[in-house]
Amino acid sequence: DLAGAGMKVALGDRNADALTETATMIIESGGDVFTGELDARDPDALTAYFADVDAYYGRKWDVLINVVGGTFRQSFEDSNPRGWDALIRANFIWLLHSTQLAIARMRPEGGSIINITSIEGHRAAPGFAVYAAMKAAVTSLTWTLAVELAPENIRVNTIAPDFIATPGILAQSPHDRGEEASALRYRISTPMGRIGNLADAGGCALFLASNLSCFVTGTTLHPDGGAIASSGWFNW
Length: 236
Description:
With 236 residues, the chain is an alpha/beta fold. 46% of the residues lie in helices and 12% in strands. The chain contains eight helices and six strands, in the order βαβαβαβαβαααβα. It has helices at 16-28, 43-57, 81-106, 129-149, 167-172, 179-189, 198-209, 227-230, and strands spanning 9-13, 33-37, 63-66, 111-116, 154-159, 220-221. The strands form two sheets. It has a four-stranded parallel beta sheet, with helices on both faces. A two-stranded parallel sheet has the order 1-2. Strand 1 (9-13), helix 1 (16-28) and strand 2 (33-37) form a beta-alpha-beta unit. The protein is globular, with a radius of gyration of 18 Å. The two termini are 34 Å apart.
């Protein structure tokens, strides 16, 4: 979505195949893209990636989108410090580093930092306690940095989707009663009656990256079909 709007894009991920697939789509549509294969949780690798992007595009960054995250289902009672550390590193610590690296690169003109969180940071999430807590932490961090960086015209916002049909999410979804039953579950729990798609989240990112949102900071967009507003109401 960003490349289609004319943005020069840099992608970092540990999945080489996904990087190649996405970069090919961008190039074939006439866009400009740089890719780097790395694990964002590695501070040295993340620092080196930022430097590589600087060398390719120049040091001025306009937009940073922090996407990396992940979780697994487990009761809190059965969890342990090693698992907590893994979830905290994957969903919060690396994002602190990435954001800090970007701030200096957005001066003096300003920029937009967009953090992908989750609806689980705004409601109870049994079986995902530490993950949900980290998503809430990112939201709190976003509020604080939005105020701290506002005088420099650096905006900080979050996108908190519910169910978006990405390969990773689909792999975690329960299909024990068949795909039709699984789809019915989300039609019932989502007021708009459908599963979210990639464009639903991408459109939010494009809005927050562009000057259409030049006076928006410290807020959260919810591409969730009304799930956060429904507060447990079901679309029977």
